Amino acid sequence: xxxxxxxxxxxxxxxxxxxxxxxxxxxxxxxxxxxxxxxxxxxxxxxxxxxxxxxxxxxxxxxxxxxxxxxxxxxxxxxxxxxxxxxxxxxxxxxxxxxxxxxxxxxxxxxxxxxxxxxxxxxxxxxxxxxxxxxxxxxxxxxxxxxxxxxxxxxxxxxxxxxxxxxxxxxxxxxxxxxxxxxxxxxxxxxxxxxxxxxxxxxxxxxxxxxxxxxxxxxxxxxxxxxxxxxxxxxxxxxxxxxxxxxxxxxxxxxxxxxxxxxxxxxxxxxxxxxxxxxxxxxxxxxxxxxxxxxxxxxxxxxxxxxxxxxxxxxxxxxxxxxxxxxxxxxxxxxxxxxxxxxxxxxxxxxxxxxxxxxxxxxxxxxxxxxxxxxxxxxxxxxxxxxxxxxxxxxxxxxxxxxxxxxxxxxxxxxxxxxxxxxxxxxxxxxxxxxxxxxxxxxxxxxxxxxxxxxxxxxxxxxxxxxxxxxxxxxxxxx
Length: 479
Hints:
Elements: E1 7-11, E2 17-23, E3 26-28, H1 52-59, H2 61-80, H3 84-99, H4 105-127, H5 133-152, H6 157-165, E4 172-175, E5 177-178, E6 187-188, H7 199-206, H8 211-214, E7 218-224, E8 233-241, E9 246-255, E10 258-261, E11 277-280, E12 285-293, E13 296-305, E14 308-314, E15 323-335, E16 339-342, E17 347-350, H9 353-366, E18 405-414, E19 417-425, E20 436-443, E21 452-470
Antiparallel strand pairs: 1-2, 2-3, 4-7, 5-6, 7-8, 8-9, 9-10, 9-11, 12-13, 13-14, 14-15, 15-21, 16-17, 18-19, 19-20, 20-21
Helix pairs in contact: 1-2, 2-3, 2-4, 3-4, 5-6
């Protein structure tokens, strides 16, 4: 059984540790702490501290450590940046700004955090893969393929287009061995050669130090040629759990007698915890598939929400920053099924026809099925009585919950009484059998009566597909 952990400490191959913190739908991983591994070793020489600022840094351990991170980040950028003079000048200017803080630790810490973000962004810009003409053509071809598929099947045009490009040629997959330690859901790198792995590949796998990746959780491994050089590369997927039930995926290039981590050419200190992408199984709608087009392999990473699917075409063995993206938009025909399910009694029941008609009418009039047109309603959803229990109670349904996506709040009038309703869904999750599952909950403003819930289903219809190149969102937003 999968367990949820709000925070976990992982051990790197060099013996140092890092902590992964779950924050709602997002996770702060080792990718956001690329420079920390060498921090203490590269810190300021406090025996030579002279100014008030330097002494304040040396007297505060967390501040000293972030100063060390700064040194590592600056050197890393200097090694990668084409215009080193500009980097040096910018760093000198920042030091002057830092020194204005004097001995104020909070001010110094903020200056460092802001500068680290800038250096990291500049480093990514310097080393990240830049999409070329072939990548752009692949993106445009996928867009056209989706348009063509929509003429025959406007409901599943995206899935049909991706399936037509999918590939698993020559792929071999195997799992890690179970661990004797039941504290965490964890596996160990296999002790014996798995079926389908050649002796040459097995020798390279054992020489690649993959134990650290296995220590992060339940690990699985796949061999497939990702760059067309005739040798199979490695994909390691690790389920780490946490609030969002996260899984992380990293790739390794076959490099002679071993497999080399994707980040190694850009960050020699890269170790376990880096990821090409991640998926969140609770609080997101994400998936990934290998596709091949114009002789190249891509990881088609899908991040969904209500009315929108975004497909990011990731280069599997590079750092991705500016990413070819295909965006598909839908609208929905929403219905309220006659057969409803009662959570309290675990039984089904037939919804009153008049109430069902009222709910469908409210959804239709609100335009909830057209997510590309958000509601412009600014006033209270229900009339505020003169003796109301507080105006705020009439403007929205209330606080949301990260594991579901709110579509909109709307009024529903039942027997001349106004109820505030909220339509939720699971980030556009969709299936051929059930379509879009959603939930409409109602509450009476100014009342302590329990809320009422009704299941809603929707069938989607393709509206438009566009392309762009830019930053990713969701689990592809690793950097």
